[in-house]
Here is the input.
Amino acid sequence: MDAARKGIVVLPFEVLKRALLQPEASSLLMFFVLFGITAILQENFFEAKSIVRTINSFAPLILLAMGQAIVIISGGIDLSSGAALSLLTCVLTTVMKKDDPITGVYALILAFLVALGTGVVNGLGIGYLRIPPVIVTFATSYAWLGIALFLRPTPGGESVPWFRVFYNMRAVEGVPEVLKSLGNYVPPALLLIVGACVLWYIVSRTRTGRYIYAVGSNIESAYVSGINTGKTQMLACVLNAVLIFLAALFFVGQNQTGDARMGGPLTLRSIAAVVVGGIALSGGRGSVYLAIVGALILGFVGRIIFFANVPNAYQTLVSGIIVIAAIAGPAYATLRRELR
Here is the structure.
Protein backbone atom coordinates (compact mmCIF):
# COMPACT_ATOMS: atom_id res chain seq x y z
CA MET A 1 0.00 0.00 0.00
CA ASP A 2 2.81 2.43 0.95
CA ALA A 3 4.62 1.66 -2.29
CA ALA A 4 1.44 2.30 -4.26
CA ARG A 5 0.92 5.65 -2.54
CA LYS A 6 4.54 6.56 -3.13
CA GLY A 7 4.13 5.75 -6.81
CA ILE A 8 1.04 7.95 -7.01
CA VAL A 9 3.00 10.84 -5.48
CA VAL A 10 6.08 10.34 -7.66
CA LEU A 11 4.14 10.17 -10.92
CA PRO A 12 2.64 13.70 -10.72
CA PHE A 13 6.03 15.01 -9.57
CA GLU A 14 7.73 13.50 -12.63
CA VAL A 15 5.04 14.89 -14.91
CA LEU A 16 5.47 18.35 -13.35
CA LYS A 17 9.26 18.08 -13.62
CA ARG A 18 9.08 17.18 -17.30
CA ALA A 19 6.67 20.01 -17.96
CA LEU A 20 8.94 22.55 -16.27
CA LEU A 21 11.90 21.35 -18.32
CA GLN A 22 10.15 22.39 -21.51
CA PRO A 23 11.48 25.72 -22.89
CA GLU A 24 7.89 26.93 -23.28
CA ALA A 25 7.20 26.37 -19.57
CA SER A 26 10.27 28.39 -18.54
CA SER A 27 9.20 31.26 -20.79
CA LEU A 28 5.62 31.25 -19.52
CA LEU A 29 6.78 31.08 -15.90
CA MET A 30 9.06 34.07 -16.40
CA PHE A 31 6.22 35.92 -18.14
CA PHE A 32 3.82 35.44 -15.24
CA VAL A 33 6.46 36.46 -12.71
CA LEU A 34 7.31 39.70 -14.54
CA PHE A 35 3.62 40.34 -15.26
CA GLY A 36 2.85 40.08 -11.55
CA ILE A 37 5.75 42.34 -10.53
CA THR A 38 4.72 44.96 -13.11
CA ALA A 39 1.10 44.85 -11.96
CA ILE A 40 2.23 45.46 -8.37
CA LEU A 41 4.60 48.31 -9.21
CA GLN A 42 2.26 50.08 -11.68
CA GLU A 43 -0.82 51.16 -9.74
CA ASN A 44 -3.04 51.79 -12.78
CA PHE A 45 -1.87 48.69 -14.65
CA PHE A 46 -5.36 47.26 -15.16
CA GLU A 47 -7.05 50.50 -16.22
CA ALA A 48 -8.32 50.50 -19.82
CA LYS A 49 -6.14 53.44 -20.91
CA SER A 50 -3.07 51.88 -19.33
CA ILE A 51 -3.71 48.56 -21.06
CA VAL A 52 -4.04 50.34 -24.41
CA ARG A 53 -0.76 52.19 -23.84
CA THR A 54 0.96 48.93 -22.89
CA ILE A 55 -0.24 47.19 -26.04
CA ASN A 56 0.88 50.15 -28.17
CA SER A 57 4.35 50.19 -26.63
CA PHE A 58 4.86 46.44 -27.03
CA ALA A 59 3.27 45.97 -30.49
CA PRO A 60 6.26 46.77 -32.78
CA LEU A 61 8.58 44.36 -30.98
CA ILE A 62 5.88 41.67 -30.94
CA LEU A 63 5.38 41.90 -34.71
CA LEU A 64 9.12 41.88 -35.44
CA ALA A 65 9.68 39.00 -33.01
CA MET A 66 6.98 36.91 -34.72
CA GLY A 67 8.57 37.52 -38.11
CA GLN A 68 12.03 36.80 -36.74
CA ALA A 69 10.73 33.57 -35.22
CA ILE A 70 9.48 32.33 -38.58
CA VAL A 71 12.88 32.95 -40.18
CA ILE A 72 14.78 31.34 -37.28
CA ILE A 73 12.52 28.27 -37.23
CA SER A 74 13.25 27.85 -40.95
CA GLY A 75 16.97 27.73 -40.18
CA GLY A 76 17.88 31.36 -40.82
CA ILE A 77 18.14 34.64 -38.95
CA ASP A 78 17.39 38.23 -39.97
CA LEU A 79 19.82 40.97 -38.97
CA SER A 80 18.12 43.38 -41.37
CA SER A 81 14.62 43.49 -39.84
CA GLY A 82 15.14 46.79 -38.04
CA ALA A 83 16.64 48.41 -41.13
CA ALA A 84 13.77 47.08 -43.26
CA LEU A 85 11.30 48.59 -40.79
CA SER A 86 13.04 51.95 -41.05
CA LEU A 87 13.05 51.73 -44.85
CA LEU A 88 9.31 51.07 -44.96
CA THR A 89 8.54 54.06 -42.72
CA CYS A 90 10.64 56.25 -45.02
CA VAL A 91 8.89 54.90 -48.14
CA LEU A 92 5.46 55.54 -46.61
CA THR A 93 6.21 59.11 -45.52
CA THR A 94 7.97 59.99 -48.78
CA VAL A 95 5.06 58.92 -50.99
CA MET A 96 2.29 60.35 -48.79
CA LYS A 97 1.27 63.99 -49.04
CA LYS A 98 -0.67 65.30 -46.08
CA ASP A 99 -3.26 67.20 -48.14
CA ASP A 100 -3.90 64.38 -50.63
CA PRO A 101 -5.66 61.40 -48.98
CA ILE A 102 -5.29 59.12 -52.03
CA THR A 103 -1.50 59.19 -51.65
CA GLY A 104 -1.98 57.09 -48.54
CA VAL A 105 -3.30 54.28 -50.72
CA TYR A 106 -0.37 54.64 -53.12
CA ALA A 107 2.04 54.56 -50.17
CA LEU A 108 0.45 51.40 -48.79
CA ILE A 109 0.77 49.58 -52.11
CA LEU A 110 4.34 50.69 -52.76
CA ALA A 111 5.51 49.97 -49.21
CA PHE A 112 3.97 46.49 -49.34
CA LEU A 113 5.79 45.77 -52.60
CA VAL A 114 9.04 47.05 -51.12
CA ALA A 115 8.50 44.82 -48.09
CA LEU A 116 7.99 41.81 -50.34
CA GLY A 117 11.15 42.81 -52.21
CA THR A 118 13.23 42.81 -49.03
CA GLY A 119 11.93 39.35 -48.19
CA VAL A 120 12.65 38.02 -51.67
CA VAL A 121 16.22 39.38 -51.67
CA ASN A 122 16.96 37.82 -48.26
CA GLY A 123 15.27 34.61 -49.35
CA LEU A 124 17.32 34.37 -52.55
CA GLY A 125 20.57 34.75 -50.64
CA ILE A 126 19.64 32.34 -47.86
CA GLY A 127 17.53 29.77 -49.67
CA TYR A 128 18.90 29.59 -53.20
CA LEU A 129 22.46 30.91 -53.03
CA ARG A 130 23.03 29.12 -49.70
CA ILE A 131 24.95 32.07 -48.28
CA PRO A 132 24.98 31.99 -44.45
CA PRO A 133 21.93 33.96 -43.19
CA VAL A 134 24.10 36.12 -40.93
CA ILE A 135 26.14 37.30 -43.94
CA VAL A 136 23.13 37.86 -46.20
CA THR A 137 21.04 39.83 -43.74
CA PHE A 138 24.01 41.77 -42.36
CA ALA A 139 24.72 42.94 -45.91
CA THR A 140 21.09 43.75 -46.71
CA SER A 141 20.75 45.68 -43.46
CA TYR A 142 23.24 48.18 -44.86
CA ALA A 143 21.42 48.24 -48.19
CA TRP A 144 18.03 48.96 -46.59
CA LEU A 145 19.59 51.58 -44.30
CA GLY A 146 21.31 53.25 -47.24
CA ILE A 147 18.10 53.51 -49.24
CA ALA A 148 16.24 54.77 -46.17
CA LEU A 149 18.85 57.50 -45.61
CA PHE A 150 18.62 58.46 -49.27
CA LEU A 151 14.87 58.90 -48.96
CA ARG A 152 14.90 60.49 -45.53
CA PRO A 153 18.34 61.81 -44.40
CA THR A 154 16.69 63.20 -41.27
CA PRO A 155 13.48 62.15 -39.53
CA GLY A 156 10.43 63.71 -41.16
CA GLY A 157 8.15 63.35 -44.13
CA GLU A 158 4.38 63.51 -44.35
CA SER A 159 1.46 61.26 -43.52
CA VAL A 160 -2.18 61.57 -44.54
CA PRO A 161 -4.55 62.15 -41.58
CA TRP A 162 -6.44 58.88 -42.07
CA PHE A 163 -3.24 56.90 -41.56
CA ARG A 164 -3.71 57.40 -37.82
CA VAL A 165 -6.26 54.62 -38.04
CA PHE A 166 -3.33 52.23 -37.57
CA TYR A 167 -2.60 53.81 -34.18
CA ASN A 168 -5.68 55.54 -32.80
CA MET A 169 -9.07 55.26 -34.49
CA ARG A 170 -10.49 58.03 -32.31
CA ALA A 171 -8.11 60.56 -33.88
CA VAL A 172 -9.42 60.03 -37.42
CA GLU A 173 -12.33 62.11 -38.66
CA GLY A 174 -15.14 60.20 -40.32
CA VAL A 175 -14.58 56.98 -38.42
CA PRO A 176 -17.95 55.63 -37.14
CA GLU A 177 -18.60 56.22 -33.44
CA VAL A 178 -18.87 52.47 -32.88
CA LEU A 179 -15.27 52.00 -34.03
CA LYS A 180 -14.10 54.98 -31.99
CA SER A 181 -15.67 53.49 -28.88
CA LEU A 182 -14.13 50.13 -29.71
CA GLY A 183 -10.76 51.84 -30.00
CA ASN A 184 -10.92 52.72 -26.30
CA TYR A 185 -10.55 49.02 -25.47
CA VAL A 186 -9.22 47.35 -28.63
CA PRO A 187 -6.38 49.46 -30.08
CA PRO A 188 -5.41 49.03 -33.75
CA ALA A 189 -2.05 47.66 -32.59
CA LEU A 190 -3.84 44.67 -31.08
CA LEU A 191 -5.72 44.13 -34.34
CA LEU A 192 -2.40 44.11 -36.22
CA ILE A 193 -1.05 41.48 -33.82
CA VAL A 194 -4.20 39.39 -34.16
CA GLY A 195 -3.89 39.69 -37.95
CA ALA A 196 -0.30 38.45 -37.73
CA CYS A 197 -1.40 35.50 -35.57
CA VAL A 198 -4.18 34.62 -38.01
CA LEU A 199 -1.74 34.78 -40.92
CA TRP A 200 0.67 32.41 -39.21
CA TYR A 201 -2.16 30.11 -38.10
CA ILE A 202 -3.26 29.73 -41.72
CA VAL A 203 0.29 29.20 -42.99
CA SER A 204 1.13 26.74 -40.21
CA ARG A 205 -1.78 24.53 -41.29
CA THR A 206 -0.40 24.25 -44.82
CA ARG A 207 2.51 22.26 -46.24
CA THR A 208 4.55 25.47 -46.23
CA GLY A 209 4.26 25.70 -42.45
CA ARG A 210 5.32 22.07 -42.02
CA TYR A 211 8.15 22.52 -44.48
CA ILE A 212 9.45 25.55 -42.55
CA TYR A 213 9.93 23.35 -39.48
CA ALA A 214 11.36 20.48 -41.52
CA VAL A 215 13.93 22.67 -43.28
CA GLY A 216 14.94 24.31 -40.00
CA SER A 217 15.39 20.92 -38.32
CA ASN A 218 17.65 19.47 -41.02
CA ILE A 219 17.93 21.16 -44.37
CA GLU A 220 19.80 18.28 -46.02
CA SER A 221 17.24 15.70 -44.93
CA ALA A 222 14.43 18.01 -46.03
CA TYR A 223 16.02 18.40 -49.47
CA VAL A 224 16.50 14.64 -49.87
CA SER A 225 12.87 14.07 -48.94
CA GLY A 226 11.77 16.26 -51.85
CA ILE A 227 11.13 19.59 -50.13
CA ASN A 228 12.08 22.67 -52.12
CA THR A 229 14.27 24.13 -49.39
CA GLY A 230 15.11 27.32 -51.28
CA LYS A 231 11.46 28.16 -51.86
CA THR A 232 10.59 27.35 -48.26
CA GLN A 233 13.24 29.64 -46.80
CA MET A 234 12.27 32.39 -49.23
CA LEU A 235 8.63 32.12 -48.14
CA ALA A 236 9.76 32.35 -44.51
CA CYS A 237 11.61 35.58 -45.32
CA VAL A 238 8.58 36.95 -47.19
CA LEU A 239 6.29 36.20 -44.25
CA ASN A 240 8.77 38.00 -42.01
CA ALA A 241 8.66 41.00 -44.36
CA VAL A 242 4.86 41.12 -44.21
CA LEU A 243 4.97 41.33 -40.40
CA ILE A 244 7.63 44.06 -40.61
CA PHE A 245 5.26 45.91 -42.94
CA LEU A 246 2.51 45.74 -40.29
CA ALA A 247 4.92 47.19 -37.72
CA ALA A 248 5.77 50.02 -40.14
CA LEU A 249 2.06 50.88 -40.50
CA PHE A 250 1.80 51.20 -36.74
CA PHE A 251 4.92 53.38 -36.43
CA VAL A 252 3.85 55.82 -39.13
CA GLY A 253 0.31 55.89 -37.77
CA GLN A 254 1.73 56.76 -34.37
CA ASN A 255 4.48 59.24 -35.28
CA GLN A 256 3.26 60.54 -38.67
CA THR A 257 6.91 60.62 -39.76
CA GLY A 258 9.62 58.34 -41.09
CA ASP A 259 13.03 57.74 -39.58
CA ALA A 260 15.91 55.88 -41.22
CA ARG A 261 17.45 54.86 -37.91
CA MET A 262 14.50 54.14 -35.65
CA GLY A 263 14.39 50.39 -36.33
CA GLY A 264 18.03 49.58 -35.55
CA PRO A 265 17.67 48.67 -31.86
CA LEU A 266 14.69 46.44 -32.59
CA THR A 267 16.74 43.92 -34.58
CA LEU A 268 18.66 42.46 -31.66
CA ARG A 269 15.66 42.86 -29.36
CA SER A 270 13.56 40.77 -31.73
CA ILE A 271 16.20 38.03 -31.73
CA ALA A 272 16.38 38.17 -27.93
CA ALA A 273 12.58 37.94 -27.74
CA VAL A 274 12.66 34.81 -29.90
CA VAL A 275 15.24 33.15 -27.63
CA VAL A 276 13.40 34.20 -24.48
CA GLY A 277 10.29 32.68 -26.02
CA GLY A 278 12.00 29.28 -26.05
CA ILE A 279 12.66 29.09 -29.80
CA ALA A 280 15.92 27.34 -30.69
CA LEU A 281 18.36 29.46 -32.69
CA SER A 282 19.44 26.27 -34.42
CA GLY A 283 16.01 26.17 -36.08
CA GLY A 284 13.20 23.67 -36.40
CA ARG A 285 11.82 24.00 -32.86
CA GLY A 286 9.58 26.40 -31.00
CA SER A 287 6.32 28.25 -31.49
CA VAL A 288 5.91 31.55 -33.29
CA TYR A 289 3.23 32.48 -30.76
CA LEU A 290 5.74 32.15 -27.93
CA ALA A 291 7.80 34.88 -29.60
CA ILE A 292 4.95 37.12 -28.41
CA VAL A 293 5.64 35.94 -24.86
CA GLY A 294 9.33 36.69 -25.30
CA ALA A 295 8.56 40.21 -26.55
CA LEU A 296 6.23 40.81 -23.60
CA ILE A 297 8.91 39.65 -21.18
CA LEU A 298 11.41 42.15 -22.60
CA GLY A 299 8.74 44.85 -22.46
CA PHE A 300 7.93 44.13 -18.83
CA VAL A 301 11.64 44.29 -17.97
CA GLY A 302 11.67 47.94 -19.08
CA ARG A 303 8.46 48.66 -17.17
CA ILE A 304 9.81 47.13 -13.96
CA ILE A 305 13.02 49.14 -14.13
CA PHE A 306 11.03 52.34 -14.70
CA PHE A 307 8.45 51.87 -11.95
CA ALA A 308 11.00 50.48 -9.49
CA ASN A 309 12.92 53.77 -9.84
CA VAL A 310 16.20 52.02 -10.54
CA PRO A 311 18.95 54.68 -10.75
CA ASN A 312 20.06 55.51 -14.28
CA ALA A 313 23.57 54.24 -13.59
CA TYR A 314 22.24 50.75 -12.88
CA GLN A 315 19.35 50.46 -15.34
CA THR A 316 21.34 48.77 -18.09
CA LEU A 317 22.97 46.36 -15.63
CA VAL A 318 19.66 45.38 -14.02
CA SER A 319 18.02 45.01 -17.42
CA GLY A 320 20.85 42.80 -18.61
CA ILE A 321 20.66 40.55 -15.56
CA ILE A 322 16.91 40.04 -15.94
CA VAL A 323 17.19 39.35 -19.67
CA ILE A 324 20.03 36.85 -19.10
CA ALA A 325 17.87 35.08 -16.51
CA ALA A 326 14.97 35.04 -18.97
CA ILE A 327 17.17 33.55 -21.71
CA ALA A 328 18.88 31.06 -19.37
CA GLY A 329 15.62 29.28 -18.49
CA PRO A 330 14.63 28.17 -22.02
CA ALA A 331 18.29 27.53 -22.93
CA TYR A 332 18.78 25.24 -19.93
CA ALA A 333 15.54 23.40 -20.63
CA THR A 334 16.53 22.89 -24.28
CA LEU A 335 19.98 21.60 -23.26
CA ARG A 336 18.52 19.14 -20.76
CA ARG A 337 16.07 17.84 -23.36
CA GLU A 338 18.83 17.37 -25.96
CA LEU A 339 21.06 15.50 -23.50
CA ARG A 340 18.32 12.97 -22.76
The chain is about 75% helix and 0% strand. The first helix runs from residue 2 to 20. The two ends are 32 Å apart (CA to CA).
